[in-house]
């Protein structure tokens, strides 16, 4: 028998029961309802920020691919004038 899976299931059930207990306390007491609402709002805000960052990362990656297609640059090369060590011209 897999004891890790049994322990994980027991912990999952205990966490579920704890959340039900917290929810029932939030329904009966006004202060607990306020704290529960704030906790849910903070959780939703964190999830929204995480999703926004993931979308921004994906858009940055796609824009890099699109820029590479427009410039027709091969993946191992770079534009010589665009680097800090490129020629600067006369001042």
Distance between the termini: 77 Å
Q: Major beta sheet, specifics?
A: none
Radius of gyration: 27 Å
Low-pLDDT residue spans: none
Strand residues, percent: under 5%
Report the strand count: 0
- The level of helicity is over 70%
SS-based structural class? mainly alpha
Average pLDDT works out at 83
How many helical elements?
A: 2
Spell out the helices and strands N to C: HH
What's the structural blueprint in terms of helices and strands?
Layout: H1 3-28, H2 30-71
Helix pairs in contact: 1-2
Quick structural gist:
With about 90 residues, this protein is mainly alpha-helical.
Tell me about this structure.
It is a single chain. The protein is mainly α. The chain is 75% helix and 0% strand. The chain has a domain at 36-73. The protein has two helices and no strands. Helix 1 crosses helix 2. The protein is elongated. The termini are far apart. The model has no long low-confidence stretch (mean pLDDT 83).
Keywords:
elongated; single chain; mainly alpha; about 90 residues
